[in-house]
Amino acid sequence: MTTDQNLVNSYMDRAVEEFDVNPLATQLIRRFVNQMPDLFAAAAIRHLTTTRQSNAHRFLSVLILRHQQELLDYLTSPLESRQKAVHLFQRVAVIDPGFDVKLARKLPDRVGTNHHFAISGQRAARAIEVLDETSRGRRLIPILGHLVESIEPRTREKATLFIGRRVQSPAWAEKQLKRTDERVRANAVESLWGLDTAPARELLTNCAGDKANRVAGNALIGLHIAGAAGIADEVRRMSREPKACFRSTAAWMMGKIRDGEFLPRLTELVRDEEPVVRGAALRSLIDLRRLVAGTPAAIVEPAAEIPPEAAEHMPEKAAAEVADPDGGTFYTQNS
Predict the structure, then answer these.
(1) CB of 217 within 8 A of CB of 209?
(2) How far is CA 54 from the centre of its chain?
(3) Cα gap 16→52, rounded to integer Å
(4) How does pLDDT run across 183-205, given as a tens digit for each residue?
């Protein structure tokens, strides 16, 4: 960060704090907009990615919409916190309710007319994640529906979950299960979470025995949400599978289900011979112990994110040290 940026940030902080009582605050912010637009955008985004609410934040939300490129760069950056990007998106969407459509149209279209400038790769995947958390209903399906066929794996994966959550159709999910991409298949199953119908239960039951750990894990979670019996026993059984990927998925499920009866098994899994299992178990164990103890943070605060694309390029030792001093790596089912 440059000295100029630090200075602008400092003045912006004061302007936001004094916005309602100091008439000069508005003038100062407008001066930044007109004379230092790039520095203003970065300083404004610092405030708009928080959860604070004030007249100053609403004013900044209006002004940041004039800086479409900086706004787009932040919202689609895989190196930034997804939750902060969501906070930023939600603020500007209050001012511009059609902003979700505008962001969706930055993704590759169906016929190729925008492919030479459309966002792609990890940025496209992040854009879909943000839209999935912020855009309600089905209005983006015509714009994004074709991306389930994207040649880019991450885009295809995220689009499958986005579309699947909005159609919630066992028949649609079953078609996606014919694909070879394990993550796409797992997300097709996840899209049925919360749907308690006979066709949904049948599909989830069939997928619970899938050869892919992500697919099987998501199916069991779906059945748990639907109130099926015996899921805890299935999770414990999976936690003893010879393959480490299944044991790590079982540890992840224990954290999702949040049943205190899993504590003894998670304590055992923290000592597993495989780092990926130890990491998943440690994360679930910490969350579950906080929940059992009644710590509000375990319920309302999401765990810190390590962007998948960053984790994939971290040296194994460094990744282990971030998550677990004993050598385990944090694991998320769909990362």
Answers:
(1) no
(2) 26
(3) 11
(4) 999 999 999 999 999 999 999 99
Q: How wide is the angle at C-alpha 206 spanned by C-alphas 280 and 238, nearest 5°?
A: 30
Report the amino acid identity of residue 77: S
CA distance 221 to 219: 5
Distance CA 29, CA 195 (A): 48
Q: Which two tokens stand for residue 195?
A: 């749907």
d(CA 27, CA 23): 7
pLDDT digits (tens, 9 = 90+) for 60-83: 999 999 999 999 999 999 999 999
CA dist., res. 248 & res. 332, Å (int): 9
Phi, psi (rounded to 5 degrees) for 309: -70, -25
Which of 249, 245, 225, 222 shows the shortest CA–CA distance to 235? 249
**Mind giving me the DSSP string for 135-200?**
--SSTTHHHHGGGGG-SSHHHHHHHHHHHHHHH--HHHHHHHTTSS-HHHHHHHHHTTTT--SHHH
Could you tell me the two tokens for 31? 């001066």
pTM over 0.90: no
Geometric angle at alpha carbon 208, from 284 and 149, rounded to 5°: 95
Contact 150, 159 (CB under 8 A): yes
Contacts for 205 with CB less than 8 Å, ≥ 6 apart: 219, 223, 228
Amino acid identity, residue 202? E
